[in-house]
Amino acid sequence: MHDAFRSRSNLMEVFMSTLSKIASQVRLDSANSYLAVGPGEGLMEIRFIKKCAANVSKLIAVEQDYESVQRLRDHLGKILPNVQGVMIESDFDSWKGPVDPVELVLLFHTLYYHRPDERKQFLQKLYTTVGWLVVGL
Question: pTM higher than 0.90 for the full model?
Answer without folding.
Answer: no
